[in-house]
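Q: What residues go here?
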């Protein structure tokens, strides 16, 4: 036990509550998700379907024939994009919320940032999915780069900006 105290004693006292909350949130979420929710497909299946539906509605402004195909989207009969569980935005929402939970503030502020931030992440993911579907459907040669780098940079920048705003008035 003295080995742990050797390292934890080097952490400034004012940071310890944040770190403890962070560890509790990460452990609690992983246990809840991997032992209970993931085997049941909750909320992954519902979130994936919701992102698919939102992306299809957005794409319907630009294409005449939009249809679901499992977790994929078909544009004019051609499969354009598949929405994997890793791409439904859940992990990013949990990361965002974990930070919000770990930084103490009043309940109203925490809830407003949690709800608004989650909605923004969801909307960005719907736009990202629709845009990717269009890029892949049109054979855009940089679609993979957009998928793996550009969109991730944009969405993570928005999440980081949300955290900065949350911290700004919460000193």
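A:
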């Amino acid at each position: 036990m003295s080995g742990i105290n050797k390292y934890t004693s080097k952490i400034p006292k004012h940071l310890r509550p944040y770190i403890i909350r962070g560890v509790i949130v990460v452990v609690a979420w992983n246990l809840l998700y991997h032992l209970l929710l993931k085997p049941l497909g909750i909320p992954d299946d519902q979130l994936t379907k919701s992102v698919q539906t939102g992306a299809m509605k957005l794409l319907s402004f630009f294409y005449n024939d939009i249809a679901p195909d499992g977790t994929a989207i078909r544009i004019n009969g051609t499969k354009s994009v598949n929405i994997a569980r890793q791409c439904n935005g859940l992990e990013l929402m949990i990361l965002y919320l974990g930070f919000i939970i770990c930084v103490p503030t009043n309940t109203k502020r925490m809830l407003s940032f949690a709800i608004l931030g989650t909605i923004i992440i969801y909307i960005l993911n719907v736009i990202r999915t629709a845009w990717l579907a269009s890029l892949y459907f049109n054979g855009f040669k940089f679609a993979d780069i957009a998928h793996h780098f550009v969109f991730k940079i944009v969405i993570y920048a928005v999440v980081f900006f949300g955290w900065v705003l949350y911290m700004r008035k919460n000193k």
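A: Context that may help when evaluating the design: Residues 1-40 form one domain. The chain has a mean pLDDT of 93.
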